[in-house]
Amino acid sequence: MNKNGNLYIFTYASVLVVGVAVVLTVASISLKPFQDKNVRIEKMQNILASIGIQSTAKNAEQIYDSKISEELIVSVDGQVTSVYENGKFTKGNLRAFDVDLKKELSSVQKTKKGNLPIFVADIDGKKYYIIPLLGKGLWSSIWGNIALEDDLNTVYGANFDHKSETPGLGAEIAQKPKAGEKVFSDQFKGKKIFDDASDFKSISVVKGGVANQKAIALDNGVDAISGGTLTSNGVTDMIKDCLVNYVNFIKTQKSSNESGN
Amino acid sequence: MSQEIKEREPMFSPKNMRLITNPFNKENPITVQVLGICSALAVTVKFEPAFMMALSVIAVAAIGNTIISVLRNTIPSRIRIIVQLVVVALLVILVDQILKAFSYDVSKQLSVFVGLIITNCILMGRYEAFAMQNKPWPSFLDGLGNGFGYGLILLLVAAFREIFSPSGSLTLPFFGTVKIVPQAFFDMGYVGNGMAILPPMALISVAIIIWIQRSRNEDLQEN
In which residue ranges of chain A is pLDDT below 70? Predict the structure, then answer.
């Protein structure tokens, strides 16, 4: 058989490629459940990190179950459409944990409708509201979680992560908290997302230091990372674009709290 | 090398064993053949990712060499490089998927570099230069040897960089972080070398290894 003939080469290449494709498909399908589990655990770790709980891949699931008491889905006009509490649904049938944030945010942008997730943590009888964030940095996507105290205004904690921001500059947003050192996400503690007149202000990442300017109140800004301006701007936009969808929910929640008192 | 040997050669004949041992010294892929330098510089900041990278390359080199060697008489010479590429790509994607499933943290740290094993010159180099002319068993050993040779340098560089970095510790796979530089040193004012975590330190340490190796091995000295 002529091994350099066109027929042989074409047949050989086709058989090889089809064979390889089959092997890869089988591998991909059979490994998918394990990979998905890892992604879920990482998501849990990130949610827990925003309320200052560090977990490992082994204990994340257990800590998550014990600390996160409720998962809510809210609509843009502030209605709670789904509640998942202590392992079962008390309203609706969508878990906040399973929401594809990217899809929902783009649907909110286009149609003003979407399922917005909120996680409620219960620590020593105090409630914390954790809102997941997703946005664009300089090179690729950035994401994180921001935890609000039960006044739904003061930030209790935040954490950020990124896909491919510049190491040493923009990538510093993802620094893990360290004892005795103030990392980027630590700055958010105690900041407020509303101003005194209860208008939504979000939290801006300010170039040149928030103390050195007047446009943004001290409570609504944190210092940017030197050399990471575009990533910092991305963080500002991400927090604003994500939180603004929850303003109606927060206002209804607040007024019901006040009437309840 | 390619002449037919009538009587069966023992599995671990001296000739076959040299296929494994040579890459540690005289034919080391990184320090002598200067292949696979790019990943050696990129994934050696910490010991654990370097270890996983070394394992991945060993697997891809050994299995790929065997596959190519089994197929060597059927591969049409006009598309042999493409066939080799398909085999590397297949194995690398498999390694990547397996890491994602069972060693997620490490796969995040290695990120693109697992994918870049495809472009690692060691693999294509060994497939083309060795596996295309040799039987499966010697090819397997050759892949194993070159993988080990590559891994050895990777681990040396990674250990060197991590110990001298500001953390002064070593992240051993399965054992966790071990403190190498005692806390007392830090208390006395010792500061780790910040450059150890930057790419230039990898170049410097590879160069030091090459220097030591050449000064000890006269075969490698050029006049």
Answer: 1, 167-168, 179-180, 258-261
With respect to residue B15, please indicate whether it lies within any of the assigned structural domains.
no
**Residue A10 vs residues A245, B72, B76, B166: alpha-carbon distances, Å:** 56, 17, 10, 56
Q: Report if residue B137 sits inside a domain.
A: yes
Chain B nearest-CA distance from A55, in A, is 13
Range of the domain at B145: 33-216
Chain A residue at shortest CA distance from B82 = A13
In a domain, residue B2? The reply is no
**Residue B86 in domain:** yes
Quote ipTM for the complex.
0.74
Q: How distant is the Cα of B65 from the closest Cα of chain A, in angstroms?
A: 16
Q: Both tokens of residue B201? A: 């330190």
What's the pTM?
0.75
pLDDT tens readout for residues A158-206: 999 888 777 667 888 888 777 667 888 888 888 888 888 888 888 888 8
Whole-angstrom Cα Rg for chain A: 23
Residues of B in contact with A20 (CB under 8 A): 86, 89-90
- Cα B165 to its chain centre, rounded Å, is 22
- Nearest to residue A237, comparing CAs of A109, A120, A121? A109
pLDDT tens, residue by residue, B153-199: 999 999 888 888 877 777 777 777 777 788 888 788 887 787 887 78
* pLDDT tens per residue across span B136-165: 999 999 999 999 999 999 999 998 888 888
Number of domains in chain B: 1
Whole-number Cα distances in Å, B25 to A7, A10, B1, B36, B37? 45, 42, 21, 16, 16
Cβ neighbours for B77, distance < 8 A, ≥ 6 positions apart? A3, A4
Q: How many CA atoms lie within 13 A of A149 on its CB side?
A: 13
| Interchain CB distance below 8 Å, A57 and B105 | yes
Residues in chain A: 261
